[in-house]
Amino acid sequence: MEIKADEMLGRVMAPPTSPSLRREMREKNISEDELAASGKGGRITLDDLFARIEEKSKMPPPSRPVRTVESEKVLSECRCTPSLSRSVSEVSAQVTSTSGEVTDCIKAEDAPLCSSARKGAHSITPVISKVAAYRHESAILTIFDEVDLSNALMLSKKYCEYLLEFHGIGFGCLPFFVKACVKALKEFPAVNVSIDGDIVECQDSFDIGLAIGNEKLPVLHNSDKLNLCEIDQAIATFIEKYETNQLDFSDLEDATFIIRNAGLYGAMSSTPMLNRQHGAALGIHCIQERPVVRDGQIVIRPMMNIALSYDECVVGSCKATQFLKRVKDIVEVPEEFLEERGELL
Amino acid sequence: MSDQIFDLIVIGAGPAGYVAAIRASQLGMKVAIVEKRATPGGVCLNEGCIPSKALLDSSELFAVARDKFALHGIAIDPPRLDLNAMMLRKADVVKKLTDGISYLFKKNEVVRLHGSAILRGLNANGKHQIEISSVLEAQANVQQSLLDESPQSISILVAPKVILATGSEAAALPGVAFDGHVVVSAREALAFEKVPEHLVVAGGGFIGLELGSVWRRFGAQVTVMEMLPQILPNMDRQVADALYRSLRKQGIQFKLGTRITGVRKIGSKGIVLFNAGTGSEEIDCDKLLVAVGRKPLTVGLGLDLVGVVLDEKGKVKVDESYQTSAPGIFAIGDLVAGPMLAHKASEEAVACVEQMVGKATKVEYEYIPGVVYTWPEVAGVGVTEEQLKSAGVSYRSGRFNFAALGRARCMDETEGFVKILAEMESDRVLGVHIIGPRASDLIAEAVAVMSFGGTVRDITLTSHAHPTLSEAIREAALDVYKEAIHA
């Protein structure tokens, strides 16, 4: 490619920069005119760019409320019932601070992308570093609870034996959780959100993302309109597509809520990973027979730990706790919602 | 017949393809790379940059021992050429480097397929299907020419994204077909079994000049024929003229403004027919090296089937993200516009793949250096003085001759100079052109200065170690303001 002298001249007139700065500016979508040059001879330095980015980040976001991050304080302000406060006995504030990597990750998120790259980026950018960056700048908390699956398992055995043929290990009760989440999301619309930068939007549709493997996130669109059987089949299809690497981009778009099944790997307990575009993520785990007390008697029940990670600034601890409690209650007595709409099959 | 699914398929394992595959794998993609040749590295590694530089360095040492040792006070019997050993060393250099790339593929879990690829359009899921006619593993070491007879297996690979990086091949002179014996391309000229008595080089570009230099040093009579009235037409004129004079001094003959009209073959020799504007003439030769340019390798890929459009020069049309007119199919390197340089191809590979995952990487074409590995070497970056004149840009220039430089004197490499062009008002460096010892290494400083938007003053205020060749750049910068100490 022959360089034209007049093109070259255009560059001469621009303030002096460096190759890394130019890439950084493209990724942050910041032009030279926005930057104050502090270097020798009118040179724009990386520090000038970082100063500008910080300045931009301090501008009040249009709709996202900024609250204090101190989880204890926020929790004490919530009016929790005694049973609720048991649920929040474990609260972890994972405001992890990370180093160098962070800038790199933010870039991948904020850069103006060509349409194909935007879609592709979702499935292939290392997720871990994104999460690290996100945690660095957000207050992500996790609450834990446990759920008794006797009824759910009995139901699935009793009514849907043939469904089990489709079930992979650990997926046996996932449809129950999907239904329970949809029902709870309807009651707590603040949890069913999508976040784009500083803009938080409550969603009317119930698009539940199901984490498979580490990175792929197929989405059950309009899952409120599916019955248990249909949900189960959709999940089976996703797994098959995942295993043959055939998940389409349309399968991966725009979840409003996430369910992560760490039980797939035999995990007892985990803090589900939360992406920046979601308000909350439910983590479900493996089922274990445990002694529990029912009516003053020690009985053995199939128990599962569940966890909910949420963005404190978007969902809030109070709503999150109530939401998780509601999911627990529904899954423990699934007949309630099944009878309500007769949507078992 | 089996389907294999990837995130990215790269066709061609040259400096564009192998870099794209490795970078994509680093970024988390599942990558397959398809290569016709048994070894990775493309033309650059197997029959271009690397073997030619191995021979250039060997021939340079030979010429130094023959012509310059006496000057340094080293008395030896005249050195004898063992061309066979030299070729074996060249092959060894190539093998070590191609093995290195094979290792990198393994390390980065890039799936490597030996065979040729054809685009077969989209499947039901909207992904690209690539048909691979694989050479079976047991046959992996057969020669290129035997490929057609090797047992093959056909398989289909599927991926949402495909990068075409098939590179280029030597273009033939109209009416003068390659025969591999008398009429040869650079590939054969790197592996002559004996020194030709008379080598005629068609084309005064860098490939012809470099290989002409190699065989001249071994004692061949070399005649370069160029259609244009000058060699290296895109280089800075002063530099190209200096090289022209230097090469002539080394005994290379030039016939400029000359058109080769045909070749008659008599036994193992040839008679080149040419016209220098004064009627048809003839000249005997052992070999005719045709180095009149390279053309992109687009045939047989099934490009028209999937709707990949070529431009009027036969190069693949791409947008800023290297996407062709067929969505999901990308092209980089010699296939697309721009100079056919390995480093340009590799940079495009990185930019193309990083853009796929949302990074804003771009190739800064204006700061890509070009090098001619003759001796003295020629290297340049940015605009030439001719371009500045024709664009009417006001500029200053500075120049410094290696003859006045201590280190160049010690090395007895006093030919050549450094020339710096700067914009008049801003003092920003617009172009640097070097002819002289190790110009290929010296140009790196100029590229760095220009990439950082540096000025001539910046160079003069930067410390340069003494005694080194790099001082020539600082002195040339000082000369812009007529302040050079040693001129």
Number of strands of chain B: 23
CATH class of the largest domain in chain B: Alpha Beta
Low-confidence parts of chain A, pLDDT < 50 over ≥5 residues?
A: 64-126, 167-171
Percentage of β-strand residues of chain A: 15-25%
The portion of residues forming beta strands of chain B comes to 25-35%
Rg of chain B computed from alpha carbons, rounded to a whole number of angstroms: 24 Å
Tell me what the structure shows:
The complex is a heterodimer of chains A (345) and B (487). Chain A has three domains: 5-58, Dihydrolipoamide Transferase (Irregular), CATH 4.10.320; 71-95 and 138-341, 2-Layer Sandwich (Chloramphenicol Acetyltransferase), CATH 3.30.559.10; 97-137, no CATH class. Chain A is 40% helix and 18% strand. Chain A has 13 helices and nine strands. Chain B has 487 residues and is α/β, with parallel strands linked by helices. Chain B folds into three domains: 3-46 and 89-169 and 295-366, FAD/NAD(P)-binding domain, CATH 3.50.50; 172-292, 3-Layer(bba) Sandwich (FAD/NAD(P)-binding domain), CATH 3.50.50; 376-480, 2-Layer Sandwich (Enolase-like, domain 1), CATH 3.30.390.30. Chain B is 31% helix and 26% strand. The chains are: A alpha+beta (345), B alpha/beta (487). The interface between A and B is large, with 45 and 46 residues.
Question: Secondary-structure blueprint of this entry?
Answer:
The complex is a heterodimer of chains A (345) and B (487).
Chain A: H1 5-13, H2 19-28, H3 46-58, H4 71-77, H5 82-87, E1 91-93, H6 101-110, H7 115-124, H8 127-137, E2 140-148, H9 150-159, H10 174-187, E3 193-196, E4 199-202, E5 208-211, E6 219-220, H11 228-243, E7 257-261, E8 280-294, E9 297-311, H12 317-332, H13 335-341
Parallel strand pairs in A: 5-7, 7-8
Antiparallel strand pairs in A: 1-2, 2-9, 3-4, 5-6, 8-9
Chain B: E1 3-5, E2 8-11, H1 17-26, E3 31-35, H2 42-47, H3 49-67, H4 83-107, E4 111-122, E5 128-135, E6 152-159, E7 161-164, E8 168-170, E9 183-184, H5 186-189, E10 198-202, H6 206-217, E11 221-226, H7 237-249, E12 253-256, E13 259-266, E14 269-275, E15 280-285, E16 287-290, E17 294-296, H8 303-306, E18 329-331, H9 342-356, E19 370-372, E20 377-382, H10 385-391, E21 395-401, H11 406-411, E22 417-423, E23 429-436, H12 439-451, H13 456-460, H14 471-480
Parallel strand pairs in B: 1-6, 2-3, 2-7, 3-4, 7-18, 9-16, 10-11, 10-16, 11-12
Antiparallel strand pairs in B: 4-5, 5-6, 8-17, 13-14, 14-15, 19-20, 20-23, 21-22, 22-23
